[in-house]
Amino acid sequence: MKRRRKLVAIAITVFAVFCIFLGYYFHFGMIGPGLPDSINGWYFPQPTGYDNNGTRMFIGTGSEHYGMTGSVNQTCPPLFPALARDCIQARYDRFYPNNSRMAGQYMVVSWYFADADDYANAEQDLCNFLNRSGNVSDTSLDLRPELQRLSAVSTDRTRYMFTSVPVTQYASDATSGFFISYKKPLLRDRQDYIIMYYGVLNDSDIRPHAPFLTTLMVQGGFPQNQTTISRLLE
Amino acid sequence: MRSSKYIYDVPYYAWYRGCSPTASAMVLGYWDSHGYPNYPTGNTLIDELANAMGTGSTWPFDGATWPLWIDNGIETVAVNHGYSSLDSVENIWLYGDHFDEMATEVDAGRPFVLSMAAGGAAVGKPTAYGYHSVTGVGYVRTTIQNYLTIHDTWNSLPDYPLSEDRLIANGNWAAAMSDWVRP
């Protein structure tokens, strides 16, 4: 009888501990991954400062030659087909040093998809449009000069394990630039797909603008896992 | 009446591998530039913390951390870099107001990790945090409401520029847990 009581007491204790554990678990469970539903804008160029009104971003490294100001908003650019509901675009102006004359007007666009099929369809639509409206080619961008230059004001964004990125190059009279896509950049089982565009407006010659587009690209950072980075339709 | 306190020089790290190791890395990143320079920075430090605190890397625990392991992970990384005196203390808060405890840490110049269960949104932001770890770097007291100043690891422009502090109202969560980090 005594042994039975002892067993019952042990069972009650174990059950109580289990209930406390369950209570704790349902209050907390595991913490994380801790990401918002959409990570659009995650790889947008981070401003190094703002103007006095807080509306114009400044991107640069102290050298006027690389200084660009811009603003960002959550709309899709009319230059491309409506690929996604969730898109962000920004315009940046670059001026010649010690001169108010504009040296280039750039845009960065980010289209975000939380579904693999939506992403694949949009990517195909975009490629069809690009092939119809301009010249498209595959290339790789060498990041080393930009990373070396930025190392003087190093942030962790400049500490990448790789020094070049694959891009789809596009050239047309309205805009020319580089497309890059990130597939599941943060977690293997999380459905995040992003198409980024870094381009110059009203210029079909991308060569003189490539360093500045690379600046914008590096300033936005890249996924740590290089295998998640690709050209369009790769 | 309004009073506030803020710890400068706490770095802003973007989410990588999980919110708990990222938030913890910002705390150690602060100490790295305040007398404890052996720590790596950025994603290298986050990698070490994620490994030490057992942050999941496979579904369904990818990026998730068991909260009881956060303090142990921080201590392990500290010891690995020669700082065996570092003490990381966890506090589980299922009810009650613990704002003064957090303010005391900030007053002492010690950033900390705050892990929220069903956390609400930061002031003026649209997205609730849910089950999320952030770095506590300051506070604002007002007669109506007290707020914590945090680095939340999110950098989705335009709503969430990375290098921007957020405010979250004290108690805007179902439960919370803090990890003090005292070198």
Can you characterise this structure?
The complex is a heterodimer of chains A (234) and B (183). Chain A is α+β, with helices and mostly antiparallel strands. Chain A folds into 2 domains: 1-34; 49-230, no CATH class. Chain A is built from 4 helices and 10 strands, in the order αβββββαβαβββαβ. In chain A, strands 1, 2, 3, 4, 5, 6, 7, 8, 9 and 10 form a 10-stranded antiparallel sheet that branches. Chain B is 25% helix and 30% strand. The termini of chain B are far apart. The relative contact order of chain B is 0.22. The mean pLDDT of chain B is 94. Classes of the chains: A alpha+beta (234), B alpha+beta (183). Chains A and B meet through loops of A and strand 3 and strand 4 of B.
CATH fold descriptor of chain B: Cathepsin B, Chain A
Percent strand of chain B: 25-35%
Q: What is the strand content of chain A?
A: 25-35%
Number of helices of chain A: 4
Total number of distinct structural domains of chain B: 1
Low-confidence residue ranges of chain B? none
The chain-level mean pLDDT of chain B equals: 94
Tally of alpha and pi helices of chain B: 4
Helices and strands of chain B, in order, run as: EHHHEHEEEEE
Number of strands of chain B: 7
Number of separate strands of chain A: 10
Q: Which structural class matches the secondary elements of chain A?
A: alpha+beta
Q: For the largest interface in this structure, which chains are involved and how many residues does each contribute?
A: A-B, 34 and 49 residues
Shape of chain A: elongated
Oligomerization state: heterodimer
Q: What separation lies between the terminal Cα atoms of chain A?
A: 73 Å
**Gyration radius of chain B, rounded:** 15 Å
The biggest sheet of chain B, with number of strands, parallel, antiparallel or mixed sense and barrel status, is:
7 strands, antiparallel
